[in-house]
Amino acid sequence: MRVAVVALVAGITAVGVLVIRRILRIRDARSQLHRLAHRTGLDVLPSGYFRVCISGTSSGIGKACAEYLSQFSSVSVHSIGRSSVNDSFVDLTEANSIRECLNKVERLWYKSSENPSSGLDIWINNAGLFSSKTPSKVWWPNALAPAFMAEDMSYRFVANHIKSRMLRFVQVSSRLETKSDLDKENMRGIIASALDESIHFTSTKHYADSKRAMIYHTAYMHQKYASSHPSLSYVAVTPGMVNTSLGKSVANVVLWVLSYPLRFLFLRSPIEGVLPIMYAAFGCPSESGVYTADQEIIERISTTRDSEAGEVFSQIMRERFNSI
C-alpha cells in the first residue's frame, strides 16, 4: 500500500513538473516573440507596412502565425487555406486553384491602384499533410504546390520590376527530412510512384521525402537568383515537433483524443512553433539559402545541399503543372 502511495505521489509530481515546464516554455515563447516584434518594428511601424502571405492557415501553426501577425496593424496578412475563413480558399492539390490564388495576390499587391507602393514582403509556405492513403496528397501540399508558388511569385516579382521591396520565401520543413534518401538520381522514380494514385502506402517516408525536396528546392532557388536578384531570398525552417492536427487524419479518433494530455506535455504548442517561423521571416539575417531552427541558422543549405537535385525537382514540378 505504501509503495502504491509513493508511486502515485511521484507520478503526480512528475506530471506537475511537466505541466509547469510546458507553461513556462509557452510563456518564454510569447516573451521572445514580443522582443522580436519590438526589434523588427512590428509594433511601431505604419499600418500595412509589411505584406505577408501564409499558406495552411486553416489550422495548426499556419493559423497561429496568422493570428499572431494580425495583432499588429503594421502587417497585412493574406491567409491561404482550405476553409472559407481564409482570404483565399485554395485546394493545394489542384493546379488551377493554385494559379487563381497567385493571380489574386498579384492583383492585390502588384497591380492594385490602391497600393502605389507595390510589393509583397514575405511568403510563408506552411501548408502540409503528414500522411494519407494517397501519396500524391502528401506531395502536392508539402512540396509541389509550395515550389510552384515560390517560382511563380518570384517570376512575377521580377517581371513587375519591384525595386522598392525585398521578398523572402519561408519554406516550412521538418527534421524528419533527415530520414529521407531522396536525391537527384532517384527523385523522378520516387515522385512518379507517389503520384500514381493506384499505389497505396502506410509509412511516413513520403512526408520525409517531400520535406527534403523542398530543402533542395530552396537551395536551387537561392542559387538561381543570388546574383541577378539579391532582393529575393529563400529560407527553410523547422518549427520542431508541434502539437497540431498534422497527423490526425491517419490516427484513430479515440486514441487521438485520449493522447491529448501526452501531446500537450511533450510536444510544442502552436505558439512555440510560430517563434522559429517568425524568426525566419523577420528576424533572420538577410542571408538567403539557409536552414533555421528556433533562433539560429543550423545549416547553409546553399552550400551543403545539392542544388542540382533542386533543379531536377523544379523540372518535375513544372511538368506536373503544365500537364494538368
Biggest sheet descriptor: 8 strands, mixed
Which strand order spans the largest sheet, edge to edge or round the barrel? Answer: 3-2-1-4-5-6-7-8
**How would you sum up the global shape?**
globular
The secondary-structure class comes to alpha/beta
How many β-strands, per DSSP? 8
- Briefly note the CATH topology name: Rossmann fold
The parts where pLDDT drops under 50 for at least 5 residues are none
- Please tell me the CATH architecture by its name: 3-Layer(aba) Sandwich
> What is the N-to-C order of secondary-structure elements (H for helix, E for strand)?
HEHEEHEHEHHEHHHEEHH
The chain-level mean pLDDT equals 85
Radius of gyration: 21 Å
Going by CATH, what is the homologous superfamily?
NAD(P)-binding Rossmann-like Domain
Indicate how many domains the architecture comprises.
1
Determine the strand fraction and express it as a percent band.
Answer: 5-15%
Query: What CATH first level would be assigned?
Result: Alpha Beta
Roughly how much helix do the residues carry, as a percent range? 40-55%
Number of helices: 11
The termini sit apart by 68 Å
